[in-house]
Design a protein that fits this description.
This protein is an alpha/beta fold and 122 residues long. It is 34% helix and 30% strand. It is globular and about 35 Å long.
Length: 122
């Protein structure tokens, strides 16, 4: 079975954007994990995961994101998602994990994300 996942990492200022494109499944997990871990190892101020071109997103993909979030806790790196595809959004909504991840429409917006929560509206 051929694995249908491509990864790329782009630098925007002090942020790294890890792009996942294709299927995030058990078969592609090692590829996705390697890309995400390599990006985190560079200790960026923001690690943005671009999920706009993910076509199939299974529980394996969700577990990758949750593990990444757990690894980032206590580090000076903020985690954000970029334009999750409809498939990714659906999995996050069904599992009620969507509130755990700040979401941005573009990589440029995600790169400006910080560890500080936004001010509460008045």
């Amino acid at each position: 079975m051929s694995v249908r996942l491509k990864t790329d990492t782009v630098t925007i200022g002090d942020a790294l954007v890890c792009v996942l494109a294709g299927d995030v499944t058990m078969d592609s997990e090692p590829i996705a994990a390697r890309a995400l871990n390599a990006a985190l190892d560079q200790e960026p101020s923001v690690l943005a995961v671009d999920l706009s071109r993910v076509e199939l997103f299974t529980s394996t993909g969700l577990n990758l994101l949750l593990t990444l979030r757990r690894r980032i806790l206590g580090r000076p790196t903020a985690l954000a998602l970029v334009a999750p595809s409809n498939m990714v959004r659906r999995v996050l909504e069904i599992t009620e994990t969507a509130p755990l991840f700040p979401v941005y429409a573009t990589a440029e917006h995600a790169a400006r994300h910080s560890l500080q929560p936004p001010a509460a509206p008045h």
